[in-house]
Amino acid sequence: MTTTNFLLNLTVMAVLITTVASQQYTNHTVGGSMGWLFDAKNNISATNYSSWASNQTFNLGDYLIFNTTTNQTVILTYNDTTFNNCTTDDASDDDTFQFSGGNSEFGKSLTIAVPLTVVGPNFFFSDAEDGIQCQRGMAFQILVNHGLGLPPSLNQPPPPPYVAPPSPDTAQSPPVTIAGGSPSLDNGASSRLTNLRFLLPSLLLCLASVLV
Fold first, then answer.
1. How far is the C-alpha of 63 from the C-alpha of 66, rounded, in Å?
2. How far apart (Å, rounded) are the C-alpha atoms in residues 132 and 135?
3. How many other C-beta atoms lie within 10 A of the C-beta of residue 70?
4. How far apart are CA 157 and CA 165, in angstroms?
5. How many CB atoms lie within 10 A of CB 185?
6. Which of 16, 120, 164, 192 has the least C-beta neighbours within 10 A?
7. 69-116 confidence digits (pLDDT tens)
8. Other Cβ atoms closer than 10 A to 131
9. Structure pTM?
10. CA distance 185 to 190
């Protein structure tokens, strides 16, 4: 290998290493400093979320951080019809999900982190106030790229479906084992019949000798 080729290979390797090192998972704060909020006084979203999203690059394993309050909702759907309708009324459990911070008291601040786990179009909106918030700007679409792929923490198989334990009324009693094997009602009769079959030829020979 010539010195020129060697240096060229080193340059290519350096570029590849730099490219890989520059790729990492990112937390995107939705709306920037404006957060995920609805201005009820002016009946409009706090900022233009579609414009915010257009300036971001999203990859698998990234998180969207929603700094919001319990006055808004965070809905993720992969169904553009659900997104356009601004409601989850006819949504499927397989393609639409609502995230919450565990606080149901109205007007409380909370932060909700949503992982990006599906490549392609992802739609977000707030369906609060019967979809009015969504219709007035609290909605945006993003395109999720593959990037580095899912990290191990997000690349886990789903848990097995829950199976309710049987109720006391339907639960069966455990089998009872009786020492000495399974009982049989005709064990004695079968034994006597077997003995009789062995003795019958001898009795017939004796009878024949007497008659002769």
1. 10
2. 5
3. 17
4. 23
5. 6
6. 164
7. 999 999 999 999 999 999 999 899 999 999 987 777 888 999 999 999
8. 18
9. 0.65
10. 10
